[in-house]
Amino acid sequence: MEIWINPACSKCRSAVSLLDAEGAEYTVRRYLEDVPSEDEIRAVLERLGLEPWDITRTGEAAAKELGVKDWARDAGARDRWIAALAAHPELIQRPIITADDGTAVVARTEDAVRDALSR
């Protein structure tokens, strides 16, 4: 199990605390420092069952500068979104837990973290 976190994020700290409390074995990826490649983002999206716009933090300054709110949300625009997430990792929703069964969850709630733990 791996968790992508930003240590400054309270939801990330809560998720890590819950993983620790449950005695889970996991690795931490500080994705702002160890930036995922476009291929890694594609793989996580597949595991999540989501599209790149589903995990984009559209309220971030970089998102506003890029104008992502106006970007198409279809198959033809998918690579553009993924490239933006790789170039601006602060746009990636967090935390993301990749579960041992090959799935992943955006673990912003205690229930989502527990869901990942149960997989």
TrEMBL record:
<dbReference type="Pfam" id="PF03960">
    <property type="entry name" value="ArsC"/>
</dbReference>
<dbReference type="InterPro" id="IPR006659">
    <property type="entry name" value="Arsenate_reductase"/>
</dbReference>
<dbReference type="InterPro" id="IPR006660">
    <property type="entry name" value="Arsenate_reductase-like"/>
</dbReference>
<comment type="similarity">
    <text>Belongs to the ArsC family.</text>
</comment>
<dbReference type="InterPro" id="IPR036249">
    <property type="entry name" value="Thioredoxin-like_sf"/>
</dbReference>
<protein>
    <submittedName>
        <fullName>Arsenate reductase</fullName>
        <ecNumber>1.20.4.1</ecNumber>
    </submittedName>
</protein>
<keyword id="KW-0560">Oxidoreductase</keyword>
<dbReference type="GO" id="GO:0008794">
    <property type="term" value="F:arsenate reductase (glutaredoxin) activity"/>
</dbReference>
